[in-house]
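Retry 2 of 3 after timeout on previous attempt. Resubmitting structure tokens to design endpoint.
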């Protein structure tokens, strides 16, 4: 880190100390028992970055003292939504407006960019070519180019046709060099350079004409989320990890590190006069920094969730922020308050995260892009919502105005639609519809995720990349339950069409269909050692099947309402079932004998989960509670007052020390079972969370499926 003569000594020392301690831990973990003890001790360090580094170094180790230390440690404060696997629904992550103000571009996780005419609302084109989410889009100040950055680790440069021919933009060049997601792109004021920030912790400068990499800036100790040029083009500001950095572009020297945020910095922006920098963070705050004296000017508080985007109005009087609390806020940057003398206070209307902002060149209109799959156009003079663009079935990740401000572009998912910018009318839908995710399952080998949805489809995704690997179709009604075989080679799915289908995941073909239930099949489970499948149905019965032949073995009767869940115990000796009748039953599946009925819930039981030892069952109830049951005595061990709405799904972690719950209140919660206390709450879904699962091979990933049509993977990377 460069030592600038005017850099505050305390800030320099704080950052240097954190980086030094993290380096020390990285070395210590390789130096035997004393070093291991040092890393374990760092789990209680006062610095969260140091704690996180220690956790990442320890999480895969098997030593007894490490496992014991991690039992009481809360890593879930660091969990982020690593990816959302669309196909059922989608979001907008970035928007940009062309210099002439007539073109808008938006980028999405369907891997595409959309271009729109701002005045007419006409969709002018879709740009495809990225193989992963489009996280960022930007127009060059001269209006000749559009740049896009993607999760495929590339940047693409598109030439904008000034004559507005049928092909409004064509691919000029693809830039490769980053090793991970490109999260942010921006042009220099003279349109000669392109800058990119990446999750590989670096910033790269590119010559637009030659396509060559000019320089790589290194200094962030974690992901770089945002980059922005100063108005004179001589400096660059970057935000990432929990810091903001200022760079000299002529020399590549780091001039200053601004420390003060308590979590990731998602967005940075220079004021029009170049004298101030604004930064928005996951900690819910916006900070204003002085470029000249390198001091914090103000901290703006008011958002109730992370701040995803910040931008200044053209004259610099207002600062605008977009947040995961679904709002856009306008601040008087002279007072540090929301203006009290006009209608421009809080802009509400989005139903999900607001992830991106762009101001039209006339300074009168603002566009916001959101996880609710829409772009909203606002009047900055009145605060009125002028119109809505979007409604795609995939997230739109990014939107931008053309320099002339007339067109809007958006990037989105499987569904592609055209919209009239004035009326908001849908002109054409090209593919797919969004659909509820009813159930999910993680393969025992930890490599894949299966989702079943109301549209009757089963989708198999790569857990690591989020790429859709297999699409299984054949059910004639919604798929309510999915489960993998122990060797991860087969999948069983239960449906509203009263059937169970067995699929070969190596060929993607259906092996056989099991028929016998007289109503919807709500639950399926495969024995951990034998080729036996159990199914639970709304016909109040449980059936056992030979997985190899498809022959029905037996029917278990005893519930007085729909069977919501079935599970084999980890040792395979018993079977558990839950029901809308409010009970949980334990069975000897081999003899069809009912071993016990667990009673205590005041309403329907929606989900059950065995602990890894098989000694405890957790049950999630319609009344919002979770109960833990001792299977040695068949007695209730305790009740967690978990959610404000029904608990739809529960799952134990691999080590059995944590439990995750998903609820109709749209949230996931992590519970520490030794204390009964809530570890962490995740609130990224916009509708019921119907299914949750820990990765069986590691507790470092949590997967959730929701009625908002998305499957989310949560964890630390």
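Retry 2 succeeded. Sequence:
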């Amino acid at each position: 880190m460069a030592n600038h003569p005017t850099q505050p000594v305390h800030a320099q020392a704080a950052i240097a100390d954190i980086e030094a301690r993290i380096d020390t831990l990285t070395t210590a973990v390789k130096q035997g028992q004393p070093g291991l003890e040092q890393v374990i001790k760092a789990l209680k360090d006062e610095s969260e970055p140091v704690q996180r580094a220690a956790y990442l170094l320890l999480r895969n180790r098997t030593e007894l003292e490490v496992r014991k230390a991690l039992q009481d440690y809360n890593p879930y404060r660091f969990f982020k939504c690593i990816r959302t696997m669309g196909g059922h629904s989608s979001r907008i992550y970035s928007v940009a407006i062309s210099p002439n103000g007539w073109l808008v571009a938006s980028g999405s996780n369907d891997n595409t960019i959309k271009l729109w005419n701002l005045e007419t609302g006409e969709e002018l084109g879709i740009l495809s070519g990225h193989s992963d989410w489009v996280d960022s889009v930007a127009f060059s100040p001269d209006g000749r180019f559009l740049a896009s950055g993607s999760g495929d680790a590339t940047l693409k440069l598109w030439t904008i046709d000034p004559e507005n021919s049928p092909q409004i933009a064509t691919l000029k060049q693809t830039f490769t060099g980053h090793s991970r997601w490109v999260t942010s792109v921006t042009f220099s004021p003279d349109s000669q350079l392109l800058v990119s920030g990446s999750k590989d912790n670096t910033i790269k400068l590119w010559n637009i004409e030659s396509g060559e990499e000019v320089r790589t800036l290194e200094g962030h100790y974690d992901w770089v989320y945002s980059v922005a040029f100063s108005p004179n083009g001589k400096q660059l500001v970057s935000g990432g990890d929990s810091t903001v950095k200022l760079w000299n572009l002529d020399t590549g020297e780091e001039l200053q590190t601004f420390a003060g945020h308590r979590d990731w910095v998602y967005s940075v922006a220079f004021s029009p006069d170049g004298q101030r920098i604004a930064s928005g963070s996951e900690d819910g705050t916006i900070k204003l920094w002085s470029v000249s004296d390198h001091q914090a000017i103000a901290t703006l508080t008011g958002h109730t969730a992370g701040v995803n985007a910040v931008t200044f109005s053209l004259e610099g009087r207002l600062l605008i922020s977009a947040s995961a609390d679904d709002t856009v806020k306008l601040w008087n940057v002279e007072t540090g308050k929301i203006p009290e003398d006009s209608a421009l206070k809080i802009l509400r209307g989005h139903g999900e995260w607001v992830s991106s902002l762009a101001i039209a060149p006339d300074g009168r209109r603002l566009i916001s892009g959101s996880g609710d799959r829409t772009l909203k156009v606002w009047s900055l003079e009145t605060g009125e919502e002028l119109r809505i663009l979007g409604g795609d079935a995939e997230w739109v990740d990014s939107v931008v105005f053309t320099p002339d401000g007339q067109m809007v572009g958006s990037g989105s998912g499987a569904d592609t639609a055209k919209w009239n910018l004035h009326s908001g009318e849908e002109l054409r839908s090209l593919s797919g519809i969004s659909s509820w995710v009813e159930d999910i399952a993680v393969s025992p080998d930890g490599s894949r995720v299966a989702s079943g949805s109301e549209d009757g489809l089963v989708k198999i995704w790569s857990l690591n990349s989020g790429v859709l690997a297999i699409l299984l179709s054949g059910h004639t009604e919604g798929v309510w339950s999915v489960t993998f075989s122990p060797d991860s080679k087969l999948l069983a799915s239960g449906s509203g069409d009263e059937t169970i289908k067995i699929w070969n995941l190596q060929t993607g073909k259906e092996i056989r269909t099991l028929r016998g239930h007289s109503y919807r099949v709500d639950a399926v489970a495969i024995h951990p050692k034998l080729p036996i499948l159990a199914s639970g149905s709304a016909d109040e019965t449980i059936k056992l099947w030979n997985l190899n032949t498809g022959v029905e073995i037996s029917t278990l009767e005893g519930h007085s309402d729909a069977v919501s869940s079935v599970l084999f115990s980890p040792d395979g000796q018993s079977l558990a079932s839950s029901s809308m009748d409010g009970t949980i039953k334990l069975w000897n599946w081999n003899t069809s004998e009912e071993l016990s009925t667990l009673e205590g819930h005041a309403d329907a039981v929606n989900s059950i989960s065995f602990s890894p030892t098989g000694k405890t069952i957790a049950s999630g109830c319609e009344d919002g509670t979770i109960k833990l049951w001792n299977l040695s005595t068949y007695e209730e061990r305790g009740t967690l007052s978990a959610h404000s709405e029904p608990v739809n799904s529960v799952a134990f972690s691999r080590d059995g020390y944590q439990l995750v719950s998903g609820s109709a209140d749209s949230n996931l919660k992590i519970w520490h079972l030794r204390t009964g206390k809530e570890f962490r709450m995740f609130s990224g879904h916009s509708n019921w969370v119907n299914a949750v699962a820990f990765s069986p091979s590691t507790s470092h990933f949590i997967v959730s499926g929701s009625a908002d049509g998305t499957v989310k993977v949560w964890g630390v990377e």
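Attempt log closed. Residues 1-7, 82-89, 340-344, 390-434 have pLDDT under 50 and may be disordered.
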